[in-house]
Amino acid sequence: MRIGLLVNRGKPAARRFVTGFVNWLSAHGHEPVLTPDTARAFTLKVARLPDAEIVRSVELLVALGGDGTLLRAARLVGPRETPVMGVNLGGLGFLTEFSTAEARTGVTAFSRGQHREERRMVLACRYGRRRGFALNDCAVNMGRTGRVIKVVVRADGEFVNRFSGDGLVISTPTGSTAYSLAAGGPVVVPTLAAVLLTPLAPHALAARPLILPADGTLEVELAAGSEPATFNLDGQQVWPLTPGRPVAIERAGFYVRLVTPAGKSWFGILRDKLKWSGSQV
């Protein structure tokens, strides 16, 4: 089986783990494929392709690093829906659910068709001629002036609210444990179909997070006279925004197929990552 590896080489554990993992894959009949830069950096004699070409030629893409690495992998895969498996090389890692100790078992299960995977919804965004998508979230953020911005939101053409503050996070359920959570948004089961709106430091106590249906079109735009702002997609793309020109956000016509560890529950991951101390008794 041909397996692509997308590696965050900046992680301290990357060199040692990736070298051993590549050797194990080869010894078990798999063909690991790396980018030329990673193969050179780790002195590995493997198939080498640019990352955009890797996703077109593999049956499984393994993201080795943190959640940012997996978000990059999801962006490369896009509508192809190549399964993505995340291996955590250190850090919080809600998306990179496999530990380094579980990575080999995960690949073996996948190769035998005994793996578990979840279909995670994606947001498709349009702004003029620009197109992009987000697995976690997209956000309207204040610009260089650091001054309050005003964001108008409409759902299927109906006015929702005008939010004044530092910005607004538009999140998928998968992204509910990321930027939205840090801004006070709710935690949502990641396999649900919904869109979360979480204001950033709003200048009104009544401006609370909202959960909207996934089917429909959401429009966000800077109000007339607002300070400059940007539109950030999963921390991977940034678009400058102009007042009066809306960004259209919809549920994408494809999913990210996320390979997850057998025997782990989402609630168990929450308890571990968020350090919940409650017990059943």
Automatic annotation (TrEMBL):
GO-annotated molecular function: ATP binding; metal ion binding; NAD binding; NAD+ kinase activity
Keyword check for Electron transport: no
Catalyzed chemical reaction(s): NAD(+) + ATP = ADP + NADP(+) + H(+)
Entry superkingdom: Bacteria
InterPro entries, per database record: ATP-NAD_kinase_N, ATP-NAD_kinase_PpnK-typ_C, NAD/diacylglycerol_kinase_sf, NADK
Pfam families to which the protein is assigned, alphabetical: NAD_kinase, NAD_kinase_C
GO biological process annotation, one example: NAD+ metabolic process
Location of the protein in the cell: Cytoplasm
SUPFAM superfamilies: NAD kinase/diacylglycerol kinase-like
EC id: 2.7.1.23
Protein residues bound to NAD(+): 67-68, 72, 136-137, 147, 166, 201, 236
Keyword line: ATP-binding, Cytoplasm, Kinase, NAD, NADP, Nucleotide-binding, Transferase
Catalytic residues (UniProt): 67 (proton acceptor)
Cofactor names: a divalent metal cation
Assigned GO CC terms: cytoplasm
Family: Belongs to the NAD kinase family.
PANTHER family: NAD KINASE
HAMAP family hit by this protein: NAD_kinase (MF_00361)
Function: Involved in the regulation of the intracellular balance of NAD and NADP, and is a key enzyme in the biosynthesis of NADP. Catalyzes specifically the phosphorylation on 2'-hydroxyl of the adenosine moiety of NAD to yield NADP.
Descriptive protein name: NAD kinase
Organism field: candidate division WOR-3 bacterium
Lineage of source species: Bacteria, Bacteria division WOR-3
